[in-house]
Predict the structure.
Amino acid sequence: METTREGGQKKVHENTVKQLNQLLEKSYDAEKGYKNAIDKIESPRLKTFFQERALERSRFATELHNELSKINEEPTTKGSTAGTIHRTWMDIKTAWTSDNDESILEECIRGEKASVEEYKEALKEDSLLAEVRPTVRGQLSHIESTLETVKKLEDLN
């Protein structure tokens, strides 16, 4: 028979696995999105920025993968269907707009805002295991910084 405390710990563990896998999917999606944008962007400066962001999201995925492994859980290995749809939408929108750089930056802002919300939602739950919270908080901080940078870059274009 499971005690109330054991049941609570199990629930926290299960929620942590769910949240980390969702954030892992988001990292895969963002990495692919930035790589996709590199091929479509004109500005060499933006290409470099997007390459750095793709590498950062790859690092995030590795960190989340490691956190899941530490708690003896199987990490997801692919991005989400929603991420694939968003990249397809970016391709279509880019093909039909005259200012590709600006439209790509707009989509990056939209994607980063969605990431910030997902990370905040994961942290809002007091049911994440304490040992994974610093990783999630650190990644959120980087994403918020990226969002501000992308907004500034859009203003410059």
